Amino acid sequence: MQEAIAALDHTEMDDDGQKYLTFTIGDVTYGFHISRVTEIIGLQRITVVPDVPRYVKGVINLRGKVIPLVDVRARVNLPEIDYHDRTCIIVVEVGGKSVGLVVDAVSEVLAIDESQIEPPPDFRAGKTAQYISGMAKVEDSVKVLLDADKLLDMDDLDTTGRRASA
User: Fold this and answer.
1) Suppose 154 and one of 42, 95, 98, 166 were both cysteines; which one would form an S-S bond, judging by CB atoms 3.0 to 4.6 Å apart?
2) Phi/psi of residue 10, each to 5°?
């Protein structure tokens, strides 16, 4: 398996702080601010860890570093599907820790101007709305921008993916 699909070079992006890595979950395109993303890798062997939240799929060994793996689809309460050849892992840095996020497919890096971003609608239902930092209008579509800190509440997870409070 391809070890690393992409390593992101943030030095090219320092002058433009409004770039987002976009990815798909089902038919919806989501995005994380690129400053949170450290790399994109192919799906790897997952070691299942017992007694973790449903969205924590286990841990992976990323070049000698054990990192928890969170399935974004499960985290936002969408039905789970079998992983496929486009499934990949976005490694993000949250609270000084690396976390792998399983997504259906990575799309592209988009420059999105602040004028294109609107606050999320007040859904008043479900915890998923808490993870949304904004709605980006790009051409004739809307990209859902996620807040990595809220999506990966590190108070609940230690580096092995177990609940810290358990």
Assistant:
1) 95
2) -75, -15
- Model's pTM, two decimal places? 0.81
pLDDT in tens, 59-79: 999 999 999 999 999 988 889
Split at pLDDT 50, 70, 90, the class of 148 is: confident
The radius of gyration of the chain from alpha carbons, rounded to an integer in Å, stands at 15
- The span from the CA of 72 to the CA of 18, in Å, is 22
DSSP annotation string for the chain: --S-SEE--GGGGTT---EEEEEEETTEEEEEEGGGEEEEEE--PPBP-SS--TTEEEEEEETTEEEEEEEHHHHTTPPP----TT-EEEEEEETTEEEEEEESEEEEEEE--GGGEEPPP---SSGGGGGEEEEEEETTEEEEEE-HHHHT-TTTB-TTSSBTT-
